[in-house]
């Protein structure tokens, strides 16, 4: 799907090298800002290969160059069971591992990803969309709130570095016809 020179498409195996280069640049950029949300355990090559195989890995192209990547799936971490989601039942599409090349952040690519995320969920008849974000990434927290996501609670991810384990969980309900509190 192409909008304003930005295309979002399923990733192919030939994209993996570029995806990993951009992820490395993002990690460095975040670490320079004191944000330690990613490590070698996640996201990594094995994760990308698994998501590629299941057709859940996407790339963002800007001006015909891969500018970032993300995952859409239905796989919630066990820690999410403790979150006070608005509804217990329903079908939810989840966003994971969104990253955009630091050299072109601020050009609306994140908004385009969220548009795609929501459009995909609506087409797939999901009841809502969910994600988590590192609690010390203030720009991301503000971004999701501005886009209409509701903070539903925090989780501790023990596989993350010490003092960098708290993640905020967000959701946006898209339809309530099948849901009840």
UniProtKB/TrEMBL annotation:
Q: What GO terms are given for molecular function?
A: acyltransferase activity, transferring groups other than amino-acyl groups
Every copy of the N-acetyltransferase domain together lies at: 6-176
PROSITE patterns cross-referenced by the UniProt entry = GNAT
Q: What domain of life does the UniProt record list for this protein's source?
A: Bacteria
Keyword check for Protease, yes or no. no
- Which residue ranges run through the membrane? none
- What CDD domains does the record point to? NAT_SF (cd04301)
In the UniProt record, does the keyword Ubl conjugation occur? no
Q: Which UniProt keywords apply?
A: Transferase
Name by which UniProt lists this protein: GNAT family N-acetyltransferase
């Amino acid at each position: 799907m192409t909008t304003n020179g930005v295309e979002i498409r399923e990733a192919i195996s030939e994209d993996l090298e570029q995806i990993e280069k951009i992820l490395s640049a993002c990690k460095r950029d975040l670490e320079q800002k004191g944000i330690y949300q990613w490590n070698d355990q996640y996201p990594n090559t094995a994760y990308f290969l698994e998501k590629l195989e299941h057709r859940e890995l996407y790339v963002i192209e800007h001006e015909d160059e891969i500018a970032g990547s993300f995952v859409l799936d239905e796989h919630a971490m066990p820690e999410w069971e403790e979150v006070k989601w608005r509804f217990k039942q329903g079908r939810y599409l989840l966003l994971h591992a969104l990253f955009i090349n630091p050299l072109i952040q601020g050009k609306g690519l994140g908004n385009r990803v969220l548009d795609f995320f929501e459009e995909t969920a609506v087409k797939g008849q999901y009841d809502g969309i969910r994600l988590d974000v590192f609690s010390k990434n203030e720009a991301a927290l503000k971004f999701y709130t501005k886009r209409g996501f509701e903070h539903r609670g925090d989780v501790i991810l023990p596989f993350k570095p010490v003092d960098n384990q708290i993640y905020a969980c967000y959701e946006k309900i898209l339809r309530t016809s099948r849901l009840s509190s």
